Amino acid sequence: MRIEARLRDSARRFGGKTALVAGGRRLTYAELDQVSDRFARSLIDLGIRPGERILMLLENGHEAVVTFFAAWKAGAVPCPLHPTIKAEKLAAILDSTEASVIITQTRVVATTEAALDLARTRPVVIVAGAEVLPDGVLRYEALLAESASADLPPLEDEEALALLIHTSGSTGQPKGVMLTHANVEAACLSICGYLGNTADDIVLSVLPLSFGYGITQIVTMAMAGGTLVLEKSFAFPMKILERLTEEQATGFPLVPSMAALITGIKDLEPGFLPHLRYITSAAAAMPPAFSERLRHLLPDAQLFLMYGQTECLRGTYLPPEEIARRPLSVGKAIPGTRAFVVDEDGLPVPPGTIGELVIEGPHVMPGYWGDELSSILNLSPAANGRRLHTGDLFREDSDGFLYFVSRRDDIIKTRGEKVSPQEVERALYTLPGIREAAVGGIEDPFLGQAIRAYVVLEDDALLSEREIIRHCARQLEDYMVPKSVEFRDALPRTTTGKIRLNAQDANGTTLRGNAA
Question: pTM (2 decimals)?
Answer without folding.
Answer: 0.84
